[in-house]
Structures are given as C-alpha cells and as structure tokens.
Amino acid sequence: MKSSNTIIKPHLPKFKQGLCTACILYNLFILSACDSKDPPLISNEQVDQDLGDRGIEAVDQALIPDQDLVTDAGLDMSPESDMAWTFDLDVVEEEYSERAANVERIYAGYAEQSLGFPLGIATVGYFPAPGGFRNPFAPSGTHTQHSHLNARALLLRQGQQSLVMLRVDLIAIWQDLVVDVKRELRSRGRGDLADGLIIGATHSHASGGRIVSHPILRLLAGQFSPALYHRILDNLVEVVLEADQNVRPAQVGYDTIQVSSLHSDRRCENGDLIDHSMGLLKVSDDNGELQAILVNYAMHGTVFASDDFLLSSDATGAIEHGVEQRLANYAPVLYFQSWAGDVSPETPNHQITQDGNELKDEYKELEAIGKEAAEIIIPAIEEMETRDDLDLQVKTIRFPMNNDLVNPDGSFDRFPHGGAYCYPTDGENCPEDGEEQRIYTPDDLICLIKVPEADGIRWGQIVAVKLGEIGMVSLPGEPLTSVGLELRDRALDLTGLEQVWVLGYTQGYLGYLLHYDDYFLGGYEAAGGIWGPGLGQFLVDRGVEIIAHLMDTSRPLSFLPVPLPEKADVPNEAVVIEEALGEHSWIEDVSKHEDGYWTAEFVGGDPAIDSPYVLLEKAITDENGNETWSTFTHFSGKAWSSHGPEIELSLRVDPTYGDRTEQIGRHFYWRIRMSDQFSVLPSIGELTGKFRWRVSGQDPDEYELESGSFTIGE
C-alpha cells in the first residue's frame, strides 16, 4: 500500500476532539424515547437467501426468474404497478387521485424554500463546541448566518413518471423523514410524486440539527425537536408541490467531467485513492434558456468548524453560489453529493488574487471554490446538447437489514444491532515513516457505543434512476471513494448505460460506508461506521441489484422488499415564538467599521419566526438627475442579498437567556455586516456606487426597513 504523506484534512481534528464526549452524550440521550419507526418485521424465512458470501460475480449474474421470488418492489413504481401490488396493503387509488397527466416529452419544474431552521440552532456533524449562543434551541448554538439554508426541488416528468430531485442543506437525511414526505404526498393524492422522490443532503457541517429521531444519530444532530421536525417536513412537502406547479416543456442534457482542483483525499489509511468525476445535468427550455443545473460531486462540507457558530451551506453551497453568480442568465444550481466519505474540500488558492476585507478567512476560501467551479462548470454546460425525448424510470426499493445479512461472516456478532467508535480514537493508522501499518481484527473491536436491540435499524432504502442513457444509484450514508467506484463500475458493466452517478447521503443515513478490508485499517471513517465491516459491501450489492431490477423487472431480487412504513408518530407541536419588544427600527444606522466593512443594527423579531432578508439596492440617476433605487445583482442577475454569502447576519438578545430563560418578551437585535473589498474578484468586478439595504422580516406580521445610503469606491 502506498504511503500518503500529502493528505489534507481540514478540521478533521475537530471531528476527533469529541469522541469521548460521544459516550457522555449517548448516556444523556439514549434513555429518551426513540421516535423512529419500524416497518412490519419480516422473518428470515421470508427473505430469500442473501448473496453476500457468494461473491460479486454471483450477485451480478442474471438470476433465472422464479415465480416464487418477489420480482417487484411495490410502492415506488408506476401507479399501475403500485395498484396491483398486494404486498403493500395500504396502496389505494386515492393516493394517485391528483397525479399529473401523461406527457410524451420531458417537462421540468423548479422551486426552492427555506428549510426553516432558526438562527440559534446548533450545527451538526461535529460534536458540540462550548461558548456559543445560549438560546431556546441550543445551550451553545449559532449566532451568525453566512448563507441561508434551503431546500431546492428539481422535478422532471416523462410519461406518467416523475423524478423529484430534492436537495436539502442538511448534514444527512434520516430515512424516516423520507418516508414521512412520501406519506404526506400520498395523503394529498400525489403518489406519483412520492414514487419519484429522491432527497439528498449536501452534508454541510454548518447546517442545523434536532430533526433526527434515532438516538445514535442524535449524538451529532442534537435532541430531537418535534416542532422543528414538523416545520421542516411541511416545508419539504410544499417545495415539491410548488415545483410540480411550475412544470413546463423542457430539454435535458448530461455529461461527466473531471475536476481535481476542488477536493482532496483525506483518508491516509487506505493510500492515495481519489476520483475526480463530476456529473452535470442541464435543464433548459425549448428556446435554449437555461432553467437549472444539477451537480454530482464528492466533497465534504467542512470549511467551517463547530466553534464558528454560524449557519452556512459551506463548500457545497459555494459551488452553487459561485456558478449562479457568473452565468449569463441566472439559473439555480443543485449540488448532490457523491462518494465524499473520504474527500475534503480544497481551496484553489490561485483564485485569491488581491487583498480583501472579508469578515472571516473562510469566506474568501469559499469564494475561491465558487469562482473555480464556475470557470469549469459553465463552459461545460454551454457546450452540452439537450433533448426532450429522454426515457425516465425511477424506483425506490426498501430492503431488510440485520447482522446476519450485513456481516454474514460473524465479524460483528458481538454488536448484533450495530456499534460505533469501535477503534482507538487517539490517532490515525497511516502507513508512514516505514512503520508497519496495523490491521485490526474482529477481536480488536471495542465499540464505545453499542446499539441496543430496540434501536436497531431493520431496513434501508436505495433509489435507482434511468434518464436516457444515464443511471443514478443512491447510497444511504457516507460512501468512501472505493465503495462509490465499485457501485458505479459494476452498474455500468451490468446495465450498459453510458454513465452512472452515485448519490451519497441520499434517502437515508447509515454512517460511513467502507469496504471490509478498509474497515479493519481503522481511522476516523471506520470508527464512524455504525454496522461493522460488511455494511459498505452490503449496500453496494443492494444498489447493483436495484438498478439492474429497474432496467429489467424480470430480474429477481435476492430479498423480499420491505413495505413503506407508516408515518412517524411525532407529536404535532409548534415552535414557541417569544414576543419581540420594541419597534422595528434602526438602532444603529449604516456606517463603515474600522476594519473596513459596512454594518448596521436593527430591532427585529424572534428567530423562531423571523429570518430577516437583507437586499442590497443601488441608486440609479437618470439624465435629468432623478434618483431611483434598484436591486443590485451579480452578473447573472442574481440578487446580492443575505440569502447568499454576500451579506452576513448575526443576532444578540437583551436580556440574554443566561440572565433570564423565561420567554416572556425580549429585544432581538439583528446586525448586518458586508465587505466591500474582495480577495476573489466578484462576478461584477469591484463594488462602486451609492447603496442602501432593504430589510424585510416577520414578527409575526411583516415589517420592512430601509437603511441610510452609503457610498463605495467613489
């Protein structure tokens, strides 16, 4: 195995600082009731023999159809097949009563909406850092917003099949949330949208938490909040329905390019292994106007650390923002993760060409990532051909999981329901300096967290897509590069498709996904696995089966599919909103700080309901000397605002929650900060002119403020 001495691992030590804290947090949280739900149990006798120990060749061989084998997967197929599927007794015609009309060509629709996280929520992915903003949502939470967290839905339709690519600014998707969105869509008669739904997390570590009900994942996501869960669930359903309302005739193109400058291999234990594939999907209207771009790439969202105490779409959002700003005409970009489990973001420092007055060094790093992405992606999109007649197929299949299936060799029998942090956490296991690398054995595993039977994960789900000659296969977790490449390459060989993309962090989250031998090399990623050495291979084999079954439904599955579980029994609580004291007004009008940035502060509302939107406006003077104000935009026409990274928002309260916890009314002071000199040149060049900020918020009634004017560069 080659030595890897140039691995770059931004913030990885911060991951490891809290591993011992995991045990403490586990003891605090594990005793609380588990809100996750399980489908009806399927006995081992009902599950056809697993192919795991018969080798990859056996898994990939075409099986002889057998009438006794289950050859379809029920709920997530076409409506007609769903109606005929007797295994899922709850499927009824009413769940398709509002389905979309049959269309012979490609249609597309797009919508986006705030996820609904309040400022103050703690970030996820790292263990909580002390010293943050104490508030009702977290004992040590965020106080700053770098960019707004949202959900973006791109809907494609052909025939009666819909594909809903729902990209969310979350660290991960727990599979129960996917089920609940599907169930809610079905309750509204939109089973067609539920069947084609794919929810993918961008894996920003600067996103919010408290919406994961499973006790193990609460260690990183925080104590479950039914109120926040329902808020975000409702927003996800609404953004899907809005995208459906916006459908129009469209054309689609796709390609895979190679991009090496935006990421790096962070795992030293398994040598230098990285793949630079970036999948690009282009959606345009019949006039050739760009409507949306989808990016599939491997890159962790870890530019910020937990002690930055801010909300941000992080590196994945930087790619979206950077491209959107520099297009000839604005179109939304949706980032879907790939095999990012062992891949860090990389800053292309050659894009940093001058001195700026950014509020944080990380801000300029993200701008460099965005500009580099734009210079690579935009030319590729412009050259891409599109068609309106691509065949579309989508299928989600749920499969049973237990230790005998996942680890058939008995290597994880001491932890039959799962376990995490099974390795020493005080260092890496890198093959450096000529020292022999340690290879662990099953007897060496000392899992600090043992999953009890009541919290065992009994099923998983994978979605497969065929769009023209491109395939997509999801993995519910953080696939390492080797795992993603095996799934891609086997799917390519088996299906004959031109391209296959792997969608990591999608339809669920089962931790890090490693190959068997890689797992026993230890390291952070192996410690972060939750079901032993066999999980990565198990999910790859399932993914290969499922995309093969999508392509040919006469090809049997090796398991009895699991029916769609019922919607979670989560109390329908509302987020508590505290009265905001004082009139909405400026308490500090706009001025230039001694550090060079512009700032102002105003009285707003409780972040439980108020997420102020700050828009930059520029004065335009006509030939007669009349002055008007218009929205200031990037080159593409995208607004310069607090929803992107251009304008930072932060919050302080009086009295503090440390001084008084009762929510009986307090002042909420929102601060705006904006740089005017940039280390990475913006799409419109340097800022010059006369500007002002327009603020709109809700408390609970809508309010609006205009700042005084300020002049830059003149």
Annotation keywords:
single chain; 714 residues; alpha+beta; Immunoglobulin-like; 2 domains; five-stranded mixed beta sheet; 15 helices; 22% helix; globular
Reconstruct the topology from this structure.
Layout: H1 12-17, H2 19-29, H3 55-60, H4 79-84, E1 103-114, E2 133-135, E3 138-141, E4 144-145, E5 150-159, E6 161-168, H5 175-187, H6 191-195, E7 197-201, H7 215-221, H8 226-245, E8 248-249, E9 251-258, E10 263-265, E11 277-284, E12 290-297, E13 310-311, H9 314-326, E14 333-337, E15 343-345, H10 361-383, E16 392-400, H11 403-406, E17 419-420, E18 449-450, E19 459-467, E20 470-474, E21 478-479, H12 481-495, E22 499-503, E23 512-513, H13 516-519, H14 523-527, H15 535-551, E24 586-592, E25 598-603, E26 613-621, E27 627-631, E28 648-654, E29 667-674, E30 689-698, E31 702-706, E32 710-712
Parallel strand pairs: 4-13, 6-7, 12-14, 20-22, 21-23
Antiparallel strand pairs: 1-5, 1-8, 2-3, 4-28, 5-6, 9-11, 10-15, 11-12, 16-19, 17-18, 19-20, 24-25, 25-29, 26-27, 26-30, 28-29, 30-31, 30-32
